Amino acid sequence: MEPSQEIFDVVRAGDTGRLRALLEADPRLATVRNERGHTPVLIAQYHHKPEAVALLLGVRPAPELDIFDAASVGDTRRVAELLERDPQLLSAHSGDGFSPLGLAAFFGNGETVKLLLSRGADPKEAIGLAATTGNVEILKLLKEQP
Question: Would you say the pTM of this structure is higher than 0.85?
Answer without folding.
Answer: yes
